[in-house]
TrEMBL record:
Pfam families from the UniProt entry: Piezo_cap
Transmembrane segments: 213-234
Gene Ontology molecular function: any one: monoatomic cation channel activity
Keyword Transmembrane helix: yes
Entry's Gene Ontology cellular component terms: membrane
InterPro entries associated with the record: Piezo, Piezo_cap_dom
Occurrences of domain Piezo non-specific cation channel cap (ranges): 105-297
Protein known as: Piezo non-specific cation channel cap domain-containing protein
One GO term of the biological process aspect: regulation of membrane potential
Keyword terms of this UniProt record: Membrane, Transmembrane, Transmembrane helix
Length: 327
């Protein structure tokens, strides 16, 4: 053991409430080994009784914290008001003290021995992952909503060993050749030599589907661009070939926007076939000015209609003025 972190905080109204740290200590005092002669009541545990002196230690935390309570004056006032309201209205309030600690240890001598069993690491990693596309970046994460049985199935153990020879079986151990190996392990391998399971960590990963037409562009950029160029003029907002998609505003872009929304929806459902189909349908529409004009309306017709409506309104107003004069 090398160091420890200890924290005490106060939690209001359960895990969904507010948490405030009261005490933090990142330093320990009086770290000593406990000899067998002073283990007293602890010898009832066979693991402690059989351990070496350096394995069983005692340490003490400093009584004072490293810093003051990290709550601001408004937060303290809010807590005071909350407690006062609970007292005055005779309403119960849940207050919990939350204690967390972390032990930091150095590599003990079991890891300095090439003939030793090393360290067994239970539940070390999750072997089944998904690679999500987020803009121009990628994020690997476990699958969501796994059942307890599935979590147990895909959570794997590992083993960390110090190796002092190369893969040549005839070579003897050499302390000048030292390197770590991290191998996939199982419970039954805990006490076996690491050479019996010398394969590295294995992962299975499911990548996002994507349309080959969109390769090189993020999904957000390409679909947002298509929607925006239909609705308004794009002036160097997006980089790359998107700048060449210059469309002036359309009178009624709703139908084309629905196609774009359908592409985006297919993307979220990871339906590659429908995404490709709708995307190329949209490209075909954009290649035909007459179809675009038919779907989104004609500027000249819109202006003529507006002119006609304006003339009709003027004519109606003139008729009303004449009627008032005649009266």
């Amino acid at each position: 053991m090398a160091n420890a972190h200890f924290e005490i905080g106060i939690q209001f109204n359960g895990i969904k409430g507010s948490y405030y740290s009261l005490y933090k200590n990142n330093n320990i005092a009086n770290l000593t080994n406990v000899p067998v002669s002073k283990r007293g009541k602890f010898i009832e545990f066979s693991q402690i009784l059989e351990s070496e002196e350096a394995q069983f230690q005692q340490f003490q935390l400093y009584a004072y914290s490293d810093s003051n309570w990290d709550a601001s004056i408004p937060i303290k006032k809010q807590i005071t008001d909350m407690l006062n309201n609970a007292v005055q209205q005779n309403q119960p309030i849940q207050i919990q003290f939350k204690v967390t600690y972390q032990i930091i240890r150095t590599l003990d001598k079991t890891l300095k021995d090439c003939n030793g069993e090393g360290i067994y690491l239970p539940n070390f990693h999750i072997s089944l992952l998904r690679l999500l596309t987020i803009g121009n970046t990628y994020l690997a994460k476990p699958f969501d909503n796994l059942s307890a049985e599935q979590q147990q199935k895909y959570t794997k153990d590992a083993h960390l060993n110090l190796k002092c020879k190369l893969d040549n079986e005839s070579q003897k151990f050499d302390n000048n050749i030292q390197y770590w190996i991290l191998t996939e392990s199982k419970q039954e391998y805990k006490n076996k030599n690491h050479d019996e399971f010398n394969d590295g960590i294995k992962f299975y990963i499911l990548s996002d589907k994507y349309s080959s037409a969109l390769l090189g562009f993020s999904i957000i950029t390409i679909y947002t661009s298509v929607i925006l160029v239909i609705g308004k003029v794009i002036k160097s907002v997006f980089s790359g070939n998107i700048d060449m998609l210059m469309y002036s505003e359309q009178p009624f872009p709703d139908k084309l926007i629905k196609v774009c929304e359908a592409i985006g929806y297919s993307r979220t459902k990871r339906d590659l076939i429908k995404e490709n189909l709708l995307y190329y349908e949209l490209i075909d529409l954009l290649r035909s000015p007459e179809i675009i004009k038919m779907l989104t309306g004609s500027y000249s017709k819109m202006i003529k209609d507006q002119r006609k409506k304006w003339l009709e309104n003027e004519e109606n107003l003139e008729i009303l003025r004449l009627k008032k004069k005649q009266q």
